[in-house]
Amino acid sequence: MIEAAKRAVRQKITDVFNDAEKGERPVLRRADALFPTDSVAWKVNGDVVTMMIGGVSGLLLQMLHPAVLAGVWDHSDFRADMHGRLRRTAKFIATTTYDHAEAGRAAIDRVNRIHSKLGGDLPDGTPYRVSDPELLAWVHVTETISFLDSWIRYAEPGMPRREQDGYFAEMARVGEALHADPLPRTRAEAEALIQTFRPRLRADARTHEVAAMVMRQTVGMPAVDLAAGVIMQAGMDLLPDWARAMHRQPRALPAPLVRGGALSTARLLRWAFDGSPNRRVHPKDVTSF
User: What's CA 13's distance to the chain center, in Å?
Assistant: First the structure.
């Protein structure tokens, strides 16, 4: 009965992150991935709940940059498919971390091709390009620090600074392949880079509209949506105080309740995935399970 319960939980998570109608399946952990199996990236990027919380927090940070927000506003179907956008981000992280190196590089190449075609004008008429290296650097640093801080808060509060620095150094490989510049390779560099961007950040009506849609995100499964509500709140709670103040989103629950709920959810999913095929490292000749 315990194994059946674990499988049921895993199936719900599989359904959240994979579109069965399109033939999508979970990404295998492979020994021939871009990152070695003992990398910090393998540890941090493999926890479902902390990655979801970090993903939400990173997205909320990213949209405070007017050009990032414009890219979402002008070229994304976020109003009709916010779940799909979040799912694609999760798939990209999983593929570039765990799938074989060729698949990871192919995923990066696809993103680069898409970025090269996109651009437009900000509301004040300033032109922007999604492929702008500095803009990509903002996306990279906010995403990376959010994933890491979520891991630290809900999985490893005592994570050594050298491992934190190692995470930034490893993830810089993906950022470099995506043509982001400048790239932080330590936590200190990441925090300093974020500070250099702060004078350019804004929050207007469009920012608040997109943020509200993120916070209201559901997937249509009551049990999952209940957990998703906690995760969205935990993502907002993870933001630096100055960023949360810019979003002006009211707290649905007190911070201790949000953090307690997120930690309980994380522990439940770690229990469910313990011993599952999703956690095994597969040799290069394995393509499915």
Answer: 16
